[in-house]
Write a structure and sequence with these properties.
The complex is a heterodimer of chains A (1155) and B (560). Chain A is built from 39 helices and 33 strands. By secondary structure, chain A is α/β, with parallel strands linked by helices. In chain A, helix 26 links the parallel strand 24 and strand 25. In chain B, 55% of the residues lie in helices and 8% in strands. In chain B, helix 16 packs across helix 17 and helix 19 packs parallel to helix 21. Chain B is globular, with a radius of gyration of 29 Å. Classes of the chains: A alpha/beta (1155), B alpha/beta (560).
Chain lengths: 1155, 560
């Protein structure tokens, strides 16, 4: 006789359970608790409580139904039946809240949305369920992770709000990106409530734009799951944002009800899945899910079988024997640092280096001889100024304690906060981290070939040759599997980070993590725990995967022997000897050197402080060159107090972007010490006179925002304008010109004067209507290279160019407004297709009606190259208009509702005849085309396209001429046409241009013989290639045109002495991935610098871009020196040759012969 | 140089050149620039054929065993790779470029894994490089599949097998593939052998998935299939192809052009008028028919679609999805490779039609000839497939007409946009749902698959237009199996509900109880045979519902 039904929900962070009396259907017991990654143990505890609640009912008197991501593994031990979570939640909703139109359930690692849609024909409710895939972006785990970082107690977090709180941009797509953004904002002084509100916003936007798969949430909306139930701000964020979507999509709402009331957290929200599981059980036969009692699970746990169910691992322990481990530890434990001894009364003259990193702040004192005197390291408390004050105080105390006095001869800064620290301290130099780490490594290890720095967030590989930087690799925006991740995982297991190595070395085997994404690894941890792996084993697995992240994911170097022999490992993570062991072993296995030479791996003796040492060395170098420091002095440091603000009063109005800025007013006034907490709400009035001894630092997104005075801004702007003239950004110019009027001849047929037949009359009407037709064109994808054809085609048929309306350039606002309709997650350039059409529909059409939107499906492109297989466009790009169409027609036809025709003509630019036919098919309906006028209009289109391309090449030719003349360096963007869009390239190009490097794209490279001959002539002559436009010598599978052009441009760059290559590529770019190695090898084999920004997505990783841009410019400065040296040598040779030839010809007898 | 010699212009130029060289050398400018070159590819020659083993993979175990048999029957040494697993995926990731799609990582890594295992097993590297080649399909786009070849080479280089030969046959290349002609004889026998193997592989797979969920003795289907495979493999291997030399038309050898044509006509005729593999398939039918089944079991039917490789593989590449679905109580309707072959032919035919009347395509006779050839190939394949299907019991599905699929898919996804997974995925979803052939469509999309992702975008509108459609796209990757399975369980819940309602309706409409149906079946062994054809009722998708309707009508007949 079954008396009870038990619903058990084992989630990724909590366990929930209900016991229902089978006779009365009443809940007799329920509980909800965190399991702290020990699901089975917590369930066992629950079982005792459940059995108690059932009043001693026998095991066979109850049935159990289990749901949740951690539930399935426990089912056999419990005798229970598993119910998938979404199905369980749906059943509960149908029973407890039948009027619900949608459900949003956020769990620890899972997010689910269920929309109930009634079929008007049958009245039956259809479920549209959606779950996140493996990625836990946009779930409770992101909140947990950031909350842990900000150290906010749970009770405070629950009370944190959203409404009325200032929001800042935070990436919601990925927990790692969100963390990076929050880090940056925190360092700018943004207070915790704003940070958390911004995070709530990011999470709900992520779910609205991805998890709804473009569907509209229907009222009532139920909010379920821990974060929705317990955090006030999350609920508010939904309540504010969902009604906006309803309003835009004109969703019918019950009259007289505040839309926000239709979004609610029902009672027992956290128990819905468990209750649904019970509901599921009601329909199952009586013999299903009969509870076996708590004994089997307890016996399982007591038997120490936590590891026995797991899959077998082929991974050996980190060290195969105790001897091996001990020998390793002995060899690689850095020698203990003994701070220098100072004589009492002496004056210690030293150079100060400060490294304001993302997760910690380090400082060192360096003697004139380069010896580390004192060093200090501390985890960041959030504010770099505060952190630095503490570190410098510690340095000073170390000297003072010995009765000596410290005199700072020079100071250098580096790290994430280097600029602000330089300004506050008046340091002599702020150097980019890559340079600092290199200088430090070379200082101690003169023969270093490779420096590998693994910090809290960043991984840096620096390859050296003869003591000079030859190449570098940095992780892109993703800080996958870095030091902080190891540290936080240890903390979650309750292991002190200092005990990490000892714990991990204790594991006899370990699970194999997939490398790459930290969020995925986080999911793996949960999975591995479910499989029975112990914390020590998981920690060993994480240590083992680190070198793969470094050498495969970040640097993609399969054969390390090619880099050299001496590897220096540094960065705070190298304190963890388990991670070091994995790295050393990995380097040995990947050292494929036929000569039998083995690598030498060193751990930097000051691995945690190497950046700070590099900064101090730079200060010392400047001092040696006669520079005298303006460092404010240690007394002043102790007195530093400051207020910071980032609010409406600090907004910059110098351009239309109107960015928020952070003002930091730093005071060194006597008595101002004691470091009052940063008051972010302090009234800051721009332009106000600052108190005495107070300086204002302004953190802004661009140079113009760094000043308050309009005249000062104008001066800065004039400087920028000058730089643009001498070093133009041709990519930006091309982005503007693509939409211009190429003034084609009007070739339209006249409207038939007296049409007899209906068809002719309709045609005449359409011809006459062309004059007033307004057509929207999204500014996306290959439109950046083909639009001149379409605009000229349309204009030549009588549609005024002014009536061709383009969507705005990609921006964060444009993206956010439209992205919520998307149902898929392709590459960013494709993903912006929907927002651009949204922009046309909801912005431009709203202002002045459009009659059509034209979004061509470009199947193939024209190509100047020879010997290629085809010139296809990328299939993602080609098909984007179809996905966009679906987004606006799935819940009613948004185009039809507005009287707009949505046209996506399918066109092949590689076949002119076919193109004419396709244009006819595409536009005949809209324009009433005649065959002949269509063909004439296509000709006009081709003329415009040719003019556009020729114009770009002419500009490129001019820039090349200047570069050659002045022995300067230009950067060629190895990208795709849409990388000209500033919203897609994240303004990386503009940043580089500002440093004085002209930007060209591959389409700007001239293709006429006189340019190609010097570069490719010899290869053509020996028959390696057919012409300078042949890429068969490097790439065989040449059917994708933008890929082909990229490969060709890489060849061009490799042969031109004044050009370097910069590859831009998007996350999920299917046609770039296969040529990553080829492009890099083409450029680098010739000794030409090559840089890359890969995985570009909607998230703009400002910090990562900054480090890369600064490193690139450092690199280019040195490369340019080489170019100048070479150029001078060449000039000298030419001069000597002239003299030589003149001497030969000056023979007097020759004059006689000639006469 | 003799100072007193008077130099002419040419001599001066020579001297200047020589001096330039000297000065450049002196200034350190003389070093010639070094440029990257694509590594030279080593050919697979006819002479090496007897000692060289062809490695291949990428399909299902049955397909590969049959392709192997076909190639061995034609005198090649060959071996198929194991089904790619997570280890292969990880190797692919390690040695390939970042950011590749899953099929790339799995298949590329699988080759590396195989070679590494050979090396670890004691085969010297030189032997591996000299005595083995990898045979794979190629394409000219539009997705990155056409670039796999380069990825294979890169991964091989990075893993220490630089120089290992990868040879391609173009999917659309037909019989004119001069690149690989040397080692591989890309003649009609080759294609007839491979295509036959693929078609029979499709049929055996489908029949297996049809029977297994209903078997009354666990494992009986797999045991029967294993037996069938032995028989069919032998038949494929031992097949003797028609040849001019062994025919009465030997005398034509003196006229090469006529001999070539006669050879082609003879081979086609032998294929059409003969019935290769009939005996083996009929024997297999008898074995499979002996598997006892209970078709009253409630099993939601899940139609598999998606990206070509992800929907085909039976391993970690799609989280072992078919076995998982069966374990969850579903019947799996797998996608035959035949659809892909027919799609290739259809695309060529469509391309020809779209270009008729344009430059180079104006001759109507030539146009008709080209269309005719492609149509003939399509007709022949469909006919042969149908004959084999019948020989195997007639329970499998014939390939769906490409024209029909094009008409269903085109309004949502332009059928001219190639890549295979575009309009086809949309069309298959509509077709199988509307024709009541399944309760749910599961689309397996590898992370990073371009056309498949976009077609999923188009499906958003399709799904909202068809109210009864249960469609689930699952992104497959080498990781995240638990999550993927959970998502499938989510949709399967809905499919199961549909199947349950449908069965209840079928029982009600039959006027019988399920027990009565079962009692009737118990006394009739032919209704408990795995290969009894079941008429498809237009209102029911499920096997059980159709079975109930069928049995009810038999009961009616029996009573009458």
């Amino acid at each position: 006789m079954i008396r009870f039904r038990i619903g058990l929900d084992v989630g990724s962070t909590t366990v929930k359970a209900v016991v229902v009396d089978a006779a009365t259907d009443q809940v007799v017991w329920k509980d909800y608790q965190r399991h702290d990654s020990k699901q089975a143990k917590k369930v066992a505890e629950f079982l005792l409580l459940i059995e108690e609640a059932m009043g001693g009912a026998g095991a066979d008197e109850a049935r159990m139904f289990v749901t949740g991501s951690g539930g399935a593994a426990l089912v056999p031990l419990l005798g229970a039946k598993f119910v998938q979570e979404v199905n369980a939640v749906s059943l509960a909703v149908e029973k407890l809240f039948p009027q619900a139109g949608s459900v949003i359930e956020l769990g620890g690692q899972d997010a689910k949305i269920i929309i109930f849609k009634e079929d008007p024909a049958t009245g039956r409710k259809k479920k549209i369920p959606s779950m996140n895939d493996k990625c836990a972006g946009g779930t409770g785990s992101v909140i947990d992770k950031i909350n842990a970082k900000l150290n906010i107690p749970a009770s405070e977090l629950c009370a944190m709000g959203y409404r009325g709180i200032k929001l800042h941009p935070v990436a919601g797509k990925c927990g790692v990106f969100a963390e990076t953004d929050i880090n940056g904002l925190q360092k700018q002084g943004v207070p915790p409530d704003e940070l958390m509100a911004s995070l709530f916003e990011a999470i709900i936007q992520q779910n609205l734009s991805v998890l709804t798969r473009g569907n509209t949430l229907r009222p009532h909306v139920l909010l379920l799951g821990g974060p929705n139930t317990y955090i006030k701000g999350m609920v508010e964020a939904w309540k504010v944002n969902i009604p906006k979507v309803w309003e835009e999509r004109k969703v019918a709402l019950p009259e007289g009800v505040d839309p926000e009331e239709l979004i609610l957290v029902p009672g027992d929200a956290q128990y819905f899945a468990a209750l649904g599981a019970v509901e599921f059980g009601r329909e199952e036969p009586e013999n299903v899910g009969v509870y076996r009692g708590s004994e089997p699970l307890r016996a399982h746990l007591e038997g120490g079988t936590s590891g026995r169910q797991r899959p077998k691992s082929s991974r050996r322990p980190l060290a195969r024997s105790v001897q091996e481990r001990d020998a390793f530890i002995e060899r690689f434990t850095p020698e203990r640092f003994e701070p220098a001894r100072f004589e009492a009364g002496s004056v210690v003259r030293a150079f100060l280096g400060v490294d304001g990193g993302s997760t910690s702040t380090k400082a060192v004192l360096l003697s004139g001889e380069g010896e580390v005197l004192v060093k200090t390291y501390g985890l960041s408390k959030g504010n770099p100024i505060e952190d630095t004050k503490s570190r410098l105080q510690e340095l000073r105390e170390a000297v003072d304690a010995q009765g000596a006095t410290l005199e700072i001869l020079g100071a250098g800064t580096t790290g994430y906060a280097k600029d602000i620290l330089r300004d506050v301290l008046k340091a002599d130099a702020a150097i980019v981290e890559t340079v600092a780490h290199t200088e430090s490594a070379l200082h101690f290890y003169k023969d270093a070939d490779v420096v590998c720095d693994v910090g809290g967030q960043d991984i840096k590989i620096i390859v050296l040759k003869n003591g000079k930087v030859k190449d570098f690799k940095l992780n892109t925006q993703c800080s996958a599997g870095n030091g902080y991740f190891l540290q936080s995982t240890a903390a979650n297991f309750g292991v002190d980070v200092r005990d990490y190595a000892a714990t991990a070395f204790g594991a006899e085997e370990f699970p194999e993590f997939g490398y790459g994404c930290a969020v995925f690894m986080q999911s793996d941890i949960v999975d591995f725990q479910r499989q029975g792996w112990a914390p020590a084993e998981i920690m060993a697995g994480l240590a083992a995967v680190l070198p793969k992240n470094i050498w495969i994911y970040v640097s993609q170097i399969p054969n390390l022997a090619k880099l050299g022999r001496n590897f220096v490992l540094q960065g705070g993570t190298q304190h963890n000897l388990a991670a070091v062991k994995a790295q050393v072993d990995f380097i040995h296995t990947r050292f494929n050197d036929d000569t039998g030479v083995k690598p030498n791996v060193f751990v930097h003796k000051h691995c945690g402080e190497s950046g700070a040492i590099g900064a101090a060395l730079e200060a010392a170098r400047l001092h040696a060159r006669g520079h005298r420091t303006e460092f404010i002095g240690l007394d002043s440091v102790a007195r530093i107090s400051y207020t910071s603000a980032r609010n409406e009063s600090t907004r910059c109005y110098f351009c239309k972007n109107k960015c928020l800025r952070t003002f930091i007013d730093v005071s060194l006034k006597e008595g101002g010490g004691g470091a009052p907490p940063a008051d972010t709400q302090a009234p800051v009035v721009p332009g106000d006179k600052l108190p005495e001894e107070t300086r204002r630092l302004i953190l802004a997104t661009c140079e113009k925002g760094t000043v308050e005075d309009v005249n000062a801004m104008r001066k800065i702007k004039a400087g920028l304008d000058d730089a643009k003239k001498t070093s133009p950004d041709l990519s930006a110019l091309a982005a503007k010109r693509a939409w211009g009027d190429f003034k084609p001849a009007v070739v339209a047929d006249p409207a038939p004067a007296r049409p007899l037949f209906r068809a002719a009359r309709e045609r005449a009407e359409k011809i006459r209507a062309r004059e007033v037709l307004r057509i929207g064109i999204p500014r996306v994808l290959n439109a950046y290279s083909t639009t001149p054809f379409f605009t000229a085609y349309l204009s030549s048929l009588g549609i005024p160019h002014k009536n061709l309306v383009f969507s705005d350039f990609t921006s964060e606002t444009l993206y956010k407004e439209g992205a919520k309709r998307g149902s898929i997650d392709p590459c960013f350039p494709s993903k912006v297709g929907i927002p651009h059409v949204h922009n046309l529909l909801y912005r431009h059409h709203a202002k002045s009606p459009l009659q059509a939107i034209v979004f061509p499906m470009v199947d193939a492109l024209p190509s100047p190259l020879v010997g290629i297989q085809a010139s296809r466009a990328c299939p993602t790009v080609t098909a984007t208009p179809e996905a966009v169409k679906a987004a606006f027609t799935k819940e009613g036809d948004v185009f039809a509702e507005r009287g707009i025709a949505y046209l996506c003509p399918f066109v092949d630019f590689s076949n002119r005849d076919l193109l004419v036919r396709q244009m006819m098919q595409g536009f005949v309906e809209l324009l009433g085309l005649g065959e002949a006028e269509n063909a004439r209009a296509c000709e006009e289109g081709w003329k415009a396209l040719d003019a556009f391309m020729d114009g770009m090449r002419a500009e490129g030719r001019e820039v090349l001429r200047q570069l050659e003349k002045e022995a300067r360096i230009g950067i060629v963007v190895l990208g795709r046409p849409y990388h000209n869009d500033p919203g897609i390239n994240h303004e990386i190009l503009e940043e580089l241009q500002k440093h004085g490097y002209p930007i060209l794209t591959q389409d700007h490279l001239p293709i006429e013989a006189e340019t190609l001959e010097p570069l490719f002539g010899e290869e053509v002559a020996v028959g390696l290639i057919e012409s300078g436009l042949d890429i068969r010598d490097v790439w065989k599978n040449a059917y994708s045109e933008n890929t082909n052009r990229k490969v060709w441009a890489a060849k061009f760059v490799a042969r031109h002495p004044n050009l370097v290559g910069l590859e831009l590529s998007n996350f999920k770019c299917g046609h770039d991935a296969p040529i990553y190695s080829v492009v890099e090898e083409i450029v680098e084999k010739s000794g030409t610098p090559f840089f890359a920004f890969k995985d570009i997505d909607e998230n703009k990783p400002v910090g990562s871009i900054r480090i890369r841009v600064e490193t690139i410019t450092y690199f280019l400065k040195r490369y340019r020196d080489d170019v100048v040296v070479r150029r001078n040598k060449e000039l000298r040779v030419e001069e000597q040759l002239r003299a030589f030839e003149e001497a030969l010809r000056a023979d007097p007898r020759r004059a006689a012969v000639v006469a | 140089m003799t100072p007193n010699t008077l130099l002419n212009d040419a001599e001066i130029a020579d001297r200047v050149d020589a001096e330039r060289k000297r000065l450049m050398q002196e200034a350190g400018l003389a070093e010639p620039p070094r440029h990257f070159r694509r590594p030279a590819e080593r050919a697979f020659t006819a002479r090496e054929r007897p000692t060289t083993t062809l490695l291949f993979g990428g399909l299902t175990v049955k397909h590969e065993a049959l392709v192997k048999a076909a190639l061995e029957g034609q005198g090649y040494l060959c071996a198929s790779l194991a089904t790619p697993d997570v280890k292969a995926f990880q190797l692919g990731k390690e040695y390939g470029n970042n950011g590749q799609c899953n099929p790339t990582y799995f298949t590329v890594g699988n080759l590396v894994k195989h070679l590494q295992e050979m090396r670890e097993g004691g085969t010297p590297k030189e032997t591996i490089l000299n005595d083995y080649v990898f045979l794979t399909a190629g394409a000219c786009g539009p997705c990155r599949f056409g670039m796999y070849e380069a990825e294979y080479r890169l991964a091989l280089r990075n893993s220490g097998f630089d120089g290992f030969r990868v040879i391609l046959f173009q999917q659309k290349g037909g019989l004119s593939q001069s690149d690989v002609e040397a080692g591989l004889r890309m003649d009609l026998d080759f294609f007839l052998g491979i295509v036959g193997a693929i078609a029979i592989g499709d049929l055996l797979n489908e029949v297996g998935y049809q029977i297994r969920p209903y078997e009354t003795v666990e494992g009986s289907t797999d045991r029967a299939l294993a037996e069938c495979m032995k028989i069919v493999e032998a038949a494929v291997k031992e097949r003797r192809y028609w040849s001019l030399e062994k025919s009465g038309f030997r005398f034509l050898k003196g006229w090469p052009a006529a001999a070539r044509r006669a050879q082609t006509i003879g081979k086609f005729s032998a294929q059409i008028f003969g019935h290769p593999y009939r005996d083996a398939l009929e024997q297999s039918r008898r074995i499979l028919a002996a598997v006892e089944v209970d078709r009253t079991r409630l099993r939601p039917i899940v139609k598999i679609t998606g990206e070509f490789w992800a929907q085909t593989t039976e391993g970690d590449g799609n989280f072992k999805m078919f076995r998982f679905l069966e374990g969850e109580g579903a019947e799996v309707l797998v996608e035959p490779v035949a659809t892909w072959l027919l799609y290739m032919l259809w695309q060529s035919r469509q391309g020809q039609k779209d270009r008729f009347g344009l430059k180079g395509n104006r001759n109507p006779f030539r146009h008709l000839y080209r269309l005719g050839r492609l149509s003939l190939a399509g007709w022949m394949f469909t006919r042969e497939y149908g004959r084999w299907l019948k020989a195997l019991g007639g329970t499998a599905h014939a390939p769906v007409s490409q024209l029909h699929l094009q008409r269903l898919g085109h309004p949502h996804y332009n059928s001219r946009a190639q890549g295979g997974e575009g309009h086809l995925e949309v069309a298959k979803n509509i077709y199988y749902s509307n024709a009541k052939l399944c309760h749910m469509v599961l689309s397996l999309k590898p992370f990073g698959c371009m056309p498949s992702t976009q077609s999923d975008g188009a499906q958003a509108a399709v799904v909202s237009r068809y109210s009864d459609m249960v469609y689930l796209p699952v992104e497959t990757s080498g990781e995240g199996e638990i999550n993927a399975h959970s998502r499938v369980q989510m949709a399967l819940g809905e499919a199961r509900r549909k199947a349950k309602e449908e069965l209840a309706r079928a029982v009600e409409e039959s006027g019988r109880s399920l027990d009565e149906i079962r009692a009737f079946v118990a006394g009739r062994p032919e209704l408990r045979s795995g290969l009894t054809p079941l008429p498809h009722h237009r209102r029911y998708a499920g096997t059980a519902a159709n079975f109930v309707a069928h049995v009810a009508s038999l009961m009616k007949g029996a009573r009458a």
